[in-house]
Structure formats: structure tokens, C-alpha cells
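pipeline: protein-struct stage 2 | run 1193 | Acyl-homoserine-lactone synthase
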Amino acid sequence: MQVITGPAEVLPNNLYAKVAGYRHQVFVEQLGWALHTENGMESDQFDRADTVYVVAQDDNGHISGCARLLPTSRPYLLGEIFPQLLNGLAPPCSPEVWELSRFAAVDLNGQAKMPGQFSSSGARKLLEESVACAVSHGAKRLITVSPIGVERLLSRSEYHAHRAGPPMIIGGHPIFACWIDLD
């Protein structure tokens, strides 16, 4: 697994384009989310210079997982687009709280036998690497905006996680906000 940071133009080997293409395949094509795409790539206003990416690649450079980490001291997905998932609470704004979003662990090339996006060993490893990366940037807590299936992954992890509010159906998909304590 490789941790990459920065905007698309400074990432090695056009890796950001591969991540954006992977996100399109997973979130738009497989999950049916209505997201902004261009030329088969998914990105939004939160993919910027201070965004931190965690990317899982195989030996051939095929992506099998990704996660996006954003400091909540700047605009982020939950705070800007889905604050209703916080059940009336103010969105966090702290250098010690980072958002985990665009988390996916799907082997689109069929190289690994994965039981599901949120129940595979790859998903657990991606979560561990995402947490380690967030901690290295000063995070003490993560907040997510995620599909309900992430709860299954979190319940099997070593992290203390709990809902920030009840799940909601948005765009026809059940999603929720979740706190992950990192101490």
C-alpha cells in the first residue's frame, strides 16, 4: 500500500488519474452514485492540494483500494454537502479531526478473492493505513460520511467507532456519519 499526497499534477506516474478512474468505476458504475465525472474519472471540489490519499495497488500498479483524508479545518464533504447526517450538531472544525471519505476496497481486476468492499482483508488493511496516515498528520479522531456497510468493517476493527447521527437515504442510498476515535 502506498500513501500519496497532493494535487494530481504532482502525484507520481499519473496516479491521481488512476485513482479518479477507480473511484468512477466503484462509486458511479458499481454503486450508482450520482457524482461529477469527466472522461471516466470521478473527482470533486475536495480533491485539492491539502487532500491526502491512501491508495492500495498490486505489483502491476492496478488499484484495489483508495481513501481520501481531509482536515476539517478546511471545507470537506460532510461539513459542506451532508451536514444533516450530524443530527443537528455543528460539523467539526479542528486540525485534530480529519474526514475519511471515498473509501473503497474493491479489486476490479479480479486478482484477489474479496468477499465484499467492506469485509475483506484488503479493506481492513486500507482502514489501518488510513488511520496511521491520519495520525501522522495530527488527527486524533476521524469523521466519515459512508455507506452503511462501513459499520461492519468498523465493528471488526480495533477502533472505537460510533454513529454521529442516524443513517439517512440520500440519492437513494443509505449513508451515515461516523466518528472513529484514534487513541
